[in-house]
Amino acid sequence: MIPELLARCTFPPAGTAVDCAVSGGPDSLALLVLASEAGCRVTAWHVDHGLRPGSAAEADVVAQAASRWGAAFEARTASCEPGPNLEARARALRYGVLPAGVLTGHTADDQAETVLLNLIRGAGLDGLAGIDPARRPMLGLRRSETRDLCAESGLEPVQDPSNLDPAHRRNRVRHELLPLLCDVAERDVVPIIARSAGLMGGVRDLLDDLAAAIDPTDAKAVAQAPEPLAQMALRRWIQGETDDDHPPDAAAIERVLAVARNEARSTDVGRGWRVTRSSQRLGLQR
Fold first, then answer.
1. Which of 38, 109, 216, 231 holds its CA 20 to 30 A away from the CA of 239?
2. Whole-angstrom Cα distance, residue 2 to residue 5?
3. Residue 41 forms beta bridges with which residues?
4. CB 33 within 8 A of CB 153
5. What is the mean pLDDT of residues 184-198?
6. CA 141 to chain centre
7. Contact assessment for residue 269 and residue 286, using Cβ atoms and an 8 Å cutoff
8. Residue 146 CA: distances (Å) to CA of 34, 104, 192
9. In the predicted model, is pLDDT for residue 130 greater than 90?
10. What is the Cβ-side half-sphere exposure of residue 195, based on CA atoms within 13 angstroms?
11. How far apart are CA 278 and CA 272, in angstroms?
12. Nearest-5° angle of CA 184, CA 185, CA 188?
């Protein structure tokens, strides 16, 4: 089973040192196993958010699996209080204590869920491209395969009850929307959505390359450029200058285009930043 799964993964060459985020669930345990079987020098990182009674003991599951596969082990604590936007807050805290470039155990099922969630939010190309494959070597695998691998390897994954809680929108997409779409399509739609994400990622990367030729601070150049390229150039410029995790939304970019066309002098682009226009130049100000 392992050789067949590895053939559909994108782990770095044998001997490469890699850090793996391992919660103890089936996907992350499969990541640990497959990275080790690929010949990488693995360090398994576990982060406890303290959200469940006994969650600290889950680190022991990861530590034992790491020892069995000859991987190093590191445990961190990043306490997160229950409340709104729990998933996003926990993710931000988790990445705050994990090393840069850490690998994660996302699968094709995660990709499909992410694309649908982004579509519901009204995302553009970035959102429709879904999860960036960089640092996600298992996007070619299915969640059922990671569970099978754990069972075959004699591993007992941690069961996170929050993965069944309908209060989290991802869970409703996972347990309600995707099964409904499969029923309507009379086929498994996960590979279809994942393939579409890959295509959208290619389109986005092409637009990125073409937009790189546009100086986003040159109002005239922005105003005269094809709108999709102008939007991309502005989005990347603002995101880079503000060091934000997410690009500005479509409405903000449309307002910036109005400034570039001299239809407005300045506009708010969120998070305390404004784009201004002076002497045919666009600038960012707090």
1. 109
2. 5
3. 17
4. yes
5. 98
6. 16
7. no
8. 10, 13, 20
9. yes
10. 5
11. 19
12. 115
Q: Position 223: which residue type?
A: A
**pLDDT by residue (tens digit) across 68-124?**
999 999 999 888 777 777 777 878 888 899 999 999 999 999 999 999 999 999 888
The percent of residues in the chain predicted with pLDDT above 70, rounded, is 100
Gap between the Cα atoms of 281 and 270, Å rounded: 20
User: Would the CA dihedral through 39, 34, 154, 25 be positive or negative?
Assistant: positive
Please tell me the pTM assigned to this model: 0.90
Please state, in angstroms and as integers, the Cα–Cα distance from residue 228 to each residue in 27, 124, 204, 213, following that order.
37, 11, 10, 13
Which DSSP state fits 218?
A: B
pLDDT in tens, 271-286: 899 999 999 999 999 9
Q: Is residue 103 helix, strand or coil?
A: strand
Helix ranges, 69-122 (H): 86-97, 108-121
- Tell me how crowded residue 244 is: count the other CB atoms within 10 A of its CB: 14
To the nearest 10°, the Cα dihedral for 69, 72, 77, 83? -40
* Amino acid at residue number 130: G
Q: Which token pair is 121?
A: 């939010």
Longest pairwise C-alpha distance within the chain: 68
30-79 per-position pLDDT tens digit: 999 999 999 999 999 999 887 777 777 889 999 999 999 999 999 998 88
Distance between start and end Cα atoms, the chain: 54
